[in-house]
Amino acid sequence: MEMNEKAILQFVDLDISFRTNAGVVHAIRGVNLDLQKGETVAIVGESGSGKSVTVKAAVGLLDGNATINSGQILYRLREDDGSERVVDLLALSKRELRRTINGRRIAMVFQDPMTSLDPTMTIGKQIMEGILLHKKVDKATAYARALELLELVGITHAEKRMKNYPHQLSGGMRQRVVIAIALASDPDILICDEPTTALDVTIQARILELIKDIQSRMGLSVIYITHDLGVVAKVADYVNVMYAGRIIEVGNVNEIFYEPKHPYTWGLLAAMPDLETDDDRLASIPGSPPNLLHEPVGDAFAPRNAYALKIDEKAEPPMFKVSETHYAATWLLHPSAPAVEMPPELKARLERARKEAEKYL
Amino acid sequence: MSKYILKRIGLALLTLFLIIFMLFVLVRIMPGNPFPSERMSAEQIANKRAEMGLDDPILVQFGRYLVGLAHGDFGKGTSLYYGAPIKTVLGQCIKNSFKIGGIAILMGTAVGLLLGITAALNKGTFIDGFCTVFSILGVCVPGYVFLIFLQYFLSYKVQLFPYFFDTSRFLYSSVLPATSLSLFTMSTVARFTRNEMVEVMDSDYVHLAESKGMYGSTLVLRHILRNALIPIVTVLAPLVVDLLTGALVIEKIYGINGIGKLMVDAIAGEGVDYNYVLALGILYSALYIGIMLAVDILYGVLDPRIRVATHRGEGREG
Amino acid sequence: MMADATAYVPTAEDFEFLEGRDITTDKNFASMSYWKGVAIHFLRNRRAMAGLVIVGAIVVLAIFGPILSPYGYRDIVSYVDEAGKEVVAKGISPQLGLGGDGPFADKMFLFGTDALGRDLWTRTWQGARVSLLIAFVTIFIDMIIGMSYGLISGYFGGAVDNIMQRIVEIANSIPRLVIVSVLAIFMPKGIGLVIVALLLTEWIGMSKIARAEMLRIKEQEYVLASRTLGAHSMHIIFTQILPNTIGPIITQMMFSIPTAIFTEAFLSFVGVGIMLPQCSIGSLIESGFNNITTLPYQILAPIVVLALQMLGFNFIGDGFREALAPKLEDM
Question: Which residues of C221-256 are buried (b: 16+ CB within 10 A; e: fewer)?
Answer without folding.
Answer: eebeeeeeeeeeeeebbeebbbeebebbbebbbbbb
